[in-house]
Amino acid sequence: MKSRPVHLAVSLLLLSISAIAAIDRHALVSRFNPTRNASNPITPMQVGNGAFAFGADVTGLQTFLPFAIMSSWGWKNDSLPPGKTIEDVENYKGVSWDSHGRLVQYEFGGEASVQQWLISNPNRVNLGRVGFLFFDARGEVLNITEQDLTNVQQELDLWTGTITSSFTFQGENVIVQTYSAQSTSTIGIKIDSPLVKSGRMGIFLDFPWNDGSAKFSAPFVGVFSATSNHTSVLRTGGGLGRNVEAEISHSLVNSTFITSIGGDKFTISRNSHAAHRYTLRPTGNGPSLSLSIAYSLDSPKSVLPFKSVANESKSLWAKYWSASGFIDVLTGSTDIRAHELQRRIILSRYLMRVNEAGDTPPQESGLVNNGWYGKFHMEMVFWHLAHWALWNNWDLLDRPISVYALFLTSSIQRAQLQERYHSGARWSKMTDPSGRSAPGEINELLIWQQPHPLVFAEYEYRAKKSKATLLKWLNVVNETANWMADFAWFNASTELYDLGPPMYVVSEDTSPNVTRNPAFELAYWRHGLDLAETWMERLQAPIPKVWTEVRQNLAPVPIENGLYAVYEGLEDTFWTDPAYINDHPSLVGLHGWLPPITNVSSEIAKATADKVYTSWNISNCWGWDFPMLAMSAARNGEQDKAVDWLLHPLFEFDDIGMPIGGVRVPTPYFPGSGALLYAVAMMAAGWDGSNTAAPGFPTSENGWNVRVEGIHRAM
């Protein structure tokens, strides 16, 4: 009995040592390498580089399931509607609505066919399909299914970005390695099998028709049977790029995409002129075949050899895991929930690096399939990308947030020329690499995307503390705040500045023509203008008086019966009205997602969050709602509840970490992954004003040991 205090002291010492020792990142990452022994009909295993991704079935290619090969650069326009010309598109105009004496023209309500064309174009393209062929002894293609394979095993090595797939077919073993290059849109494939040497194994390439006829294309993108709608041409022989043995040009309407193939010796032929399917057969004498297949808009000068693709993948993935932020919630924790949370963290880190680090913001389904025609939503940029700032991945975040500078001119034109605001830039909601706003009432009337660039700018300054950063963002900060000040209108009866109408709130479920002074938007407006003024102070530049006037005199965040209300004047019975409690519960974001703000009471915000917990239809919440609820609980000192929200039964991630879309949208829904990573970083590294280690997690006495490396705190 006397030894128990000694044992306790030793245990505490070991815990202390584990808390300060460097995290064994490789061991922890590799612990969660996903494995499969059968294809999942909804989600592929993926390799990729953020701007390009290849989705594989259990064979390591796309043999049995036509998962997509997607990119941030692969877009096309459909043919114009019957009887319409490009002039009809260029001259399209929507309705004009009065907004407090200002006639504002919006891009909705115009000629229906042109409007729909503008909504669905350009649309994102599935670049093709690559799969295995199996031949009999006479060289005839065998018609097989996945059930004809045995001993099927597949593992994704997260540390190197390698999919290794193995199986047996008719007594012969097959091992496949699949990589993605990190510098180009190229996959590397290596096959080892006696079937290669005997000529009984080959590869097919197929190309689908893509169009904007469907808002969602999931789990597969494009139609492989509509062969007359598009064309393809095969070139072989001399005159191609270095290491390029064959090139296929695939044309859809006025867009052409190039597939270039290099590697070990092979022959390639088109199956028929009526199809866009090609058969590749190895001609070497050995039992292996290595290939590189590259995708581009123009014929490349060269294609990386397989070894270079593999080396790029191994090197840059190891750097990603080693050099950026890291959180270990598993080692030393006794709470049984820690394992699942760590799994979600690791797999989300991998999938976001594959799907959401391109040169434009990602769409909701990343590079897995298509949602909203493949377009991206600027209001969702925060949930997709803000985690990169906290996890210290500025090399990745710099790529997509560059669109703020790129879209600045068109956003100013939208605000001032089209909508007749006096100044500033109005950021679009649903858009594409051109920056054009897709028509639609919600697309034109949603406003909560407006302060986002101010938050990204602030995070970058905190990370780099440089005048170069201040100057880099100056024009974006200035024009963003200018429009925010101009959008707020002076209410002569209250002598305060109001927001709306017309406008849509975060949840998109109120009438835009009666929505005035919504709670979350008012708080976010104040936060954004605070950040903009601080930016000018750092530069010792004059602060526009209108910013200060609006910031200091914004309408108060509306309160009904001691709780914050969705918007001013909404009946206090809204807590029991399904019309208002069935979508994103943005009221909990007032103190949690957002930091303390002058016009928000933390006490009322907590009481409001408590009311949300008991009154909201949580069964209809989805994606980023749960991390937002977790951030609210964490900032309100309810750490156990914060963890509960992150692991809520309705907030699901599948076996490889894909966030489930549920009944609302197809799987995956990546804002859930980005929000998870942002919330975990905030809970682990803290936020402005927090003064304890891992302030968003329960203490070690309550089962949690949280170790943090290289994570920035949240605002």
UniProtKB/TrEMBL annotation:
Residues 1-22 form the signal peptide. Keywords: Signal. It comes from the Eukaryota. InterPro entries: 6-hairpin_glycosidase_sf (IPR008928), 6hp_glycosidase-like_sf (IPR012341). This is Six-hairpin glycosidase-like protein.
